[in-house]
Specification:
The chain is mostly beta strands. The protein has 2 helices and 35 strands. The chain folds into 4 domains: about 100 residues, Immunoglobulin-like (Sandwich); about 100 residues, Immunoglobulin-like (Sandwich); about 90 residues, no CATH class; about 130 residues, Immunoglobulin-like (Sandwich), CATH 2.60.40.3620. The strands form 6 sheets. Strands 25, 26, 27, 28, 29, 30, 31, 32, 33, 34 and 35 form an 11-stranded mixed beta sheet that branches. It starts with a helix and ends with a strand. The model has no long low-confidence stretch (mean pLDDT about 95).
Length: about 475
């Protein structure tokens, strides 16, 4: 027992001697302050997105150095911070720091380099240099590029050079879409990634590469988004358009911008998204639309109530209104993405708008309302079109007038109404002939023209027509 106690005491004494010896090796230096001897930024002018090359020399004649803290500040924002370990009484540090192009980066702004050298005694020396000027990259062109299927690419115009505000008007976007902003596009109006591209970064907008995300835009209070504004200084956006309520007036010039981008052949068209209300009377104005209102608006969608007024017949909702200036005629159609059973779409040849002077304009294309016509859902399962038709002899038993009902605006294999499933009344017929399978056709020997109201009835599987004039 005595031996155990002696051993424990011996251990304790040994620890005390070791601890005292350790305290004796702590070196205390006379008070001194580090010196920041050299601060060199290689670049005098940079463009946001470039990097600066920093060379710092620090020393302390008495106490060894400990750390060098670096903060890069632009427009009162800390771009980056760094803490570098320094040893001995002298150190030379070289670092490269990127100066990204982000929001709140004005032109010709000083890049501030804040330094703090600390020695082992905890004494610090601060310094700041600002010898570099950062410039904004030049944006000569800017485009809004919606994701595929949500709208057409449009160029933004610099409307306020001092505040760097860019704007596009006359857009025909829905109330919700996704997009990127690009400074370059190719001949197909798709993004050219050799230029700057803005997309979703975190909760805001920033520069992205090809792996980056699109920006989402939504405003359910609007009929559609017809105006888009981008603040290139703060990287913020604003959406604009007509408020979502049925229109009671429509000026075909003031309310319908020229060259609607949703049409391929749009030269003579004006167009916009318009929110119509069922049975709501609309007062028309602009150009010569009211010279003969019944002749100048779609009879499938309007019932004329006065010299410049008409009641909307379709379901309440958002429609495309396209005014053909050369014909003084207003086409109305549902949104392009509207599918069966909410609508059918008729494409073919030998028909045109039911408006004097009568002319056939249709073709097997979907470029503009000249090519096709929407069939309005007038009641469950019943669809109607009113068109001018003209049938002339063809190369065989069928005439030149033939068409088909489709489930969408555009080609969609297998999604169409086949005439062979219907009882079709003359002067129209069904056919299963090669090249015309499922089309509504006419006889080559039956020469006629006129305005017809054609009805497809899904309930009793009939296609009937009435000649109006």
């Amino acid at each position: 027992m005595k031996k155990s106690i002696k051993f424990i005491v011996l251990i304790g004494m040994t620890y005390c001697l070791w601890a005292c010896s350790k305290n004796d090796v702590v070196v205390r230096y006379p008070k001194s302050t580090p010196s920041i001897d050299t601060v060199i930024v290689a670049e005098s002018v940079i463009t946001y997105g470039d990097s600066i090359h920093l060379h710092v020399g620090v020393s302390d004649k008495v106490a060894p150095l400990s750390t060098l803290a670096v903060k890069i500040v632009v427009n009162n924002d800390i771009v980056t911070s760094d803490v570098i370990r320094t040893k001995g009484n002298k150190a030379s540090i070289k670092r490269t720091y990127a100066i990204p192009f982000v929001a709140n980066r004005p032109d010709n702004t000083p890049v501030e380099v804040h330094l703090a050298s600390t020695n082992v005694s905890g004494i610090e020396k601060d310094s700041m240099v600002s010898t570099t000027i950062a410039k904004r990259p030049l944006i000569t062109d800017l485009y809004i590029v919606p994701d595929f299927g949500t709208g057409a690419t449009a160029k933004l115009v610099l409307v306020n050079a001092d505040s760097l505000i860019y704007q596009a008007t006359g857009l025909l976007y829905g109330t919700s879409f996704s997009y990127k902003l690009a400074t370059k596009v190719d001949k197909f109006k798709r993004i050219d990634w050799s230029g700057m591209v803005f997309g979703k970064v975190g909760d805001g907008i920033g520069l992205i590469d090809q792996t980056g995300e699109s920006i989402n835009a939504t405003d359910a209070t609007l009929v559609g988004i017809s105006k888009f504004t981008f603040d290139a200084l703060h990287f913020t956006t604003k959406l604009g358009g007509k408020l979502l309520e049925p229109v009671t007036t429509l000026d075909v010039i003031a309310d319908l911008p020229p060259n609607p981008p949703t049409l391929i052949n749009n030269t003579d068209f004006r167009g916009n998204n318009i929110y119509f209300g069922e049975n709501v009377e609309v007062t028309f104005s602009g150009s010569g639309i009211t010279t003969d209102l019944a002749n100048n608006i779609s009879p499938d969608y309007f019932e004329v109530t006065g010299t410049n007024t008409a009641k909307f017949l379709g379901k309440t909702g958002l429609y495309k209104a396209y005014y053909l200036t050369t014909a003084n005629y207003l086409y109305i159609e549902p949104q392009p993405e509207l599918l069966y059973p909410d609508a059918l779409w008729v494409c073919g040849q030998g028909f045109g708008r039911p408006s004097k002077p009568y002319v056939t304009t249709s073709s097997w294309n979907w470029n503009s309302p000249l090519d096709y016509i929407p069939a309005r859902l007038v009641s469950p399962g019943i669809y109607q079109i009113t068109v001018y038709v003209q049938n002339t002899p063809g190369t065989d038993k069928w005439g030149t007038l033939n068409f088909k009902f489709f489930h969408k605006r555009g080609w969609w294999d297998g999604h169409e109404e086949w005439s062979t499933s219907y009882t079709v009344s003359p002067p129209f017929y069904a056919t299963g002939d090669a090249g015309l399978v499922g089309n509504v056709v006419t006889l080559s020997t039956d020469i006629f023209d006129g305005v017809y109201r054609i009805t497809l009835n899904k309930n009793d599987h009939t296609i009937t027509s009435v000649k109006l004039n």
